[in-house]
Every structure is written in structure tokens, then in C-alpha cells.
Amino acid sequence: xxxxxxxxxxxxxxxxxxxxxxxxxxxxxxxxxxxxxxxxxxxxxxxxxxxxxxxxxxxxxxxxxxxxxxxxxxxxxxxxxxxxxxxxxxxxxxxxxxxxxxxxxxxxxxxxxxxxxxxxxxxxxxxxxxxxxxxxxxxxxxxxxxxxxxxxxxxxxxxxxxxxxxxxxxxxxxxxxxxxxxxxxxxxxxxxxxxxxxxxxxxxxxxxxxxxxxxxxxxxxxxxxxxxxxxxxxxxxxxxxxxxxxxxxxxxxxxxxxxxxxxxxxxxxxxxxxxxxxxxxxxxxxxxxxxxxxxxxxxxxxxxxxxxxxxxxxxxxxxxxxxxxxxxxxxxxxxxxxxxxxxxxxxxxxxxxxxx
Length: 356
Description:
The protein has a domain at 178-355. 40% of the residues lie in helices and 19% in strands. It has eleven helices and twelve strands. It has helices at 16-23, 43-50, 61-77, 105-111, 125-143, 152-162, 198-207, 209-228, 232-257, 277-284, 346-355; strands spanning 4-7, 28-32, 54-57, 92-95, 114-115, 121-124, 146-149, 178-190, 264-276, 293-294, 299-306, 324-328. Helix 2 links the parallel strand 2 and strand 3 (54-57). The longest helix is centred in the last third of the chain and has 26 residues, at 232-257.
């Protein structure tokens, strides 16, 4: 599990509690910020940035050029904007012109409804989200940084990019040898995090360095193995070992932070990775491979889509930087006790995207 991640699709963090929770897992969070723009951060986010926990990535010409090539190709071939990126409301979002290569800026300017005082284009959420998916993927690949989002729809669609568009319309193919999957894991975080200051979060991080590293290493090792394992029985054995490792890591975090905290809650961390269908089928049941299935304590796994061509698969050579994450806080990290397992149906979101 990468110790640093790239946040997308927006610049500002709209949920301080989500940021604090993410900083309890990762050492640093990068975000994409135009050179001339100063993010409108809260005081808490500014403190995190001053402490090197949030860092801006300034785009360069190769970033924009590669993104422009991909986006141009998309606009030429896509008959409509995929409904899967529309969101629930018909709203406009802001896109900064410096995030756009000069040759496609006129196209986006033509789509913009207005320009705000900061120079942002007010553009449809559909177009903006698709452009940011291309941009985030290019920047993460060029810098070897894993991607992190707080949007379940964006996570589902990122499977398309992470696997180099190795898909066709048969999302639920029973004959597929390989699938792209989502692995959901409960991560332990301090209770009352929403009321803690960023300085208290920084202290928590200092007191749980070993536990945080062990948690990331356990996930990294599991992902690396799940991508390569084809033997179904061994997959189940490895999952059982992972459950024990996570329990041990949680105890370590509680022990290390026990001097300042005495109660903990959970958030859900979802990880995207390619897996062998034969190995996944044992864990989920052949008829339920596309539904998230509980495979131990607080761990779920399920297929998102079948991969179309085994010869083009990235599975045997999957790297840590290829992995991408969705960190879920709402309905999970709240006043209620325990874990509320309300997890998006990633395969349904992806099906809508791929068929559109």
C-alpha cells in the first residue's frame, strides 16, 4: 500500500473529517493544483499542508499534453457522455484553465456556461469529471503515485483506466478468466475524529507510526498476492492469514495510541485490483462473484467487471502504484456504534459506464 496518494477529482477537501481520517492511514496526500491558484483551504487544512501532510502537484507540459491526447480521442469516439459520471444532480462544477492543454482549451471553453472571478470554467459535471479522470490517471502514472478518491462513482470508473480499457460490453462474462475487483477493508481510527483538531491528529500519527506502516504493508502484501494467486484454496488460506495480521495491527495501534485515546471506530477502505476469476469464485461463490461478499471480520471482496483479453492483462505485473483507493466515511464513521456496511454497488456503476 503506497505511503503517499494522489487525491482526485477536486482541489479543495470538502470534508475535513475525511481528510483527517485519510491522514491516519497515509503519510502524505497530493492534490492537483494549477500554479496560479491558491486553494481556499480551511485553517485545519492549512496546518496539514504546513506540516507536509498535504502537498500540491503542479502540472507540466507532458501532463497536459498526454491528457489532451486521451481526452481528444474520447470526444471523437464517444457518442454521448456516459451516464455513470453524471452524479445525482444536474449541477455545474469549476475547472481551472491551467489544468487544460492549449489545444483542447477552446473546446472546453465552448462548453463552459460562464467564467467565475477566479478564472475557472463553469462546466457540466459530466465533462469535468471525465477530464479529471484522464488527468489524474496521467499524473499518477507519470509519478508512480496511487490514486485516492472520496467518490464511489469515480472509484468504479477508475477500473477502466487502471486496466488499460481491457473491457468489452460483457461486464458479467461467466467465461472470463480474470476480473477487476474491489476489496473492502475496515480500518481502525480514533473515535470522535470529527471533533479532533488537526494537531491532535498529527499527534495520533506520531504515536501510531509502527501500526500505520504495518497496516499498509499487510494490505500491500495481500494485494500483491491476490493479483498473482490462481489456486483457489490458497487464496482462502491467505485471506485468513490477512485477517489475523489486521487484528494484530489494530491491537498495535490501540496500544501505541492508548496514552491519548481509549476508543476507536472504523472507516472503510476499498481497493481496486485485478484477480483470477477462479480464485475469486471460491471466496464469493460462483453465482455471486459480482456482489461484495464478506470474507472475514470486516473484509469484503467482489468483481467489478470481467477483463476482455487475458493476453493484455496487467494482473501478473501489478505494481503498488497501480492500485487505487476509495476511502469511505459517510454512513460508516459516525455517531452510531459499529460498522454500517452500506457499500456502493461498484459493478452496477461500472456496467452503466461501460455500456454507455
